[in-house]
């Protein structure tokens, strides 16, 4: 199998994972399933969903609980149906937590440091192979973000290089929102000492989840601690950060980004958090909130649905 061959070439031992055979078989099964799945009608679909998650069954067993509730199941057929019913033309897939770091988390902690590294590297490879196969089989419907083996830098660089050749690639309830705020803060308050990652790499663009979470409420106060770079940071927030709508974001929460931070709607992109959002919040109400938002015109809404995502990835994803 190509996956196993490439892994051996890169000196990645997949057998350190007890479920490696199940994972390889699931990739083969994707190909078999593709020949039997009847695609729904996407004729009128235009939206681009920038925030969705594939959950292979073997990966789900590593983290059976997400935000205090049971981790949802996922399959490509159900996802395609979900998309068609909501006018979503294309979804960007990204593996959710713990990604490749399952063996650094309390639930599955691996005490042997060397074995933990090997498991992390192997899991990153299997996840990338699985999601890449989904995108190969339905290239008009799915694209993806790769998984790295961080904190192992050399192995992560190798995995990024490998993932780029696989398929079209884009380079608790309250916790999500506070974690998002913390992550955004870290882009400025990077250490040591305060390197301001956001400003240090001006060519990088960042897709920010959950409508920036709690960050708009603290952004001005936070930047008081960095007076020398505050203006540059605010400009970057308005031009190189892209805010997705995963969660109950429209029409109220997003105003923190638009009005509180002064960001234009051209930096907002569509997202559903499928399948985690199902049964968690009302995904359709969030979409309706965008549809009926009185403070936006039709062209701005069309931008959020798909045009802004095209600009974000600059031709790297075919829409």
UniProtKB/TrEMBL annotation:
Belongs to the metallo-dependent hydrolases superfamily. This is Amidohydrolase-related domain-containing protein. Residues 193-314 form the Amidohydrolase-related domain. Keywords: Decarboxylase, Lyase. It comes from the Eukaryota. GO terms for biological process: secondary metabolic process. One of its GO terms (cellular component) is cytosol. PANTHER family: 2-AMINO-3-CARBOXYLMUCONATE-6-SEMIALDEHYDE DECARBOXYLASE, AMIDOHYDROLASE-RELATED DOMAIN-CONTAINING PROTEIN. The lineage of its organism: Eukaryota, Fungi, Dikarya, Ascomycota, Pezizomycotina. The keyword Lyase applies. One of its GO terms (molecular function) is carboxy-lyase activity.
